[in-house]
Amino acid sequence: MTDKSNATGTAVFPINTELRDGTPVRIRQVQADDKHLLEIGLEHLSKQDRYFRFFRPVSKLSDKLLSEFTEIDHFNHEAIGALDISEPSGVPIGVARYIRLPEAETTAEVAVTVANSHQGKGLGTLLLAFVAHRAIENGIEEFAAFVLNDNHRMLAVFKELEAITKLSAVGEVDIRIPLHRDSACYPQTPVGDVFRQVSAILAAEG
After folding, report:
1. What is the pLDDT of residue 9?
2. Closest C-alpha among 12, 34, 137 to residue 81
3. In the chain, what percentage of residues exceed pLDDT 70?
4. Are 110 and 128 in contact (CB under 8 A)?
5. Do 205 and 12 form a contact (C-beta atoms < 8 A)?
6. Which of 118, 145, 172, 204 has its CA 20 to 30 A from that of 111?
7. For residue 25, with 0-12 CB atoms within 10 Å meaning exposed, 13-18 middle and 19 or more buried, which class applies?
């Protein structure tokens, strides 16, 4: 696996924007001192959503997982989080991350998690677009994802990106999502439109 510790790329964070319903959010890279935010975020996930994310029941994040999820190099492993800044302290409401596959330098596994209170507002797609932009900056050309086949919301998002899907195991779907440096190459779908909007936001911030 490529070694490029503490890579930052050209994306400028934090970025303040809004969800579809007008909720103000701050998008930023996850840092080592965000462990408590991940713990709070887990508390705002239903049992089903925890199962969708981890493929098993999870009641608490271990110290090992918290370290793995926050002490990252922002190159082989990137994580982009969202805070609801309508609250003074900023409430953690979602995170998207990719981890480069050691056997495939240009492919990374991606995962997106959104708090139950903020689902259906476009946050998952927004985070996916931001983390995809970071992946492209760091040489990733394709996302891989393993999704339970009853996670209809996430499957619908990937479908709008013209993902290649196949059943990989009982109850799981193996997904491959092509990434494009030119956002105009994404499909003319609502999800593709968000990817173009994020590209425009980052170009303006840069």
Report:
1. 52
2. 34
3. 91
4. yes
5. yes
6. 204
7. buried
Q: 120 Cβ partners below 8 Å, 6+ apart?
A: none
| Euclidean distance between CA atoms 75 and 97, whole angstroms | 11
- Residue 64, burial from CB neighbour count under 10 angstroms (0-12, 13-18, 19+): exposed
Q: How far apart are CA 128 and CA 2, in angstroms?
A: 22
pLDDT score, position 118: 93
Residue 7 has pLDDT above 60, yes or no: no
Alpha carbon distance, N-terminus to C-terminus of the chain: 28
Is pLDDT at 170 greater than 80 in this prediction? Answer: no
**Residue 148 contacts residue 184 (beta carbons within 8 Å):** no
Contacts of 72 by beta carbon, 8 Å cutoff, 6+ apart: 30, 78, 79
More confident residue, 3 or 191: 191
Q: How far apart are CA 104 and CA 98, in angstroms?
A: 13
pLDDT digits (tens, 9 = 90+) for 116-143: 889 999 999 999 999 999 999 999 999 9
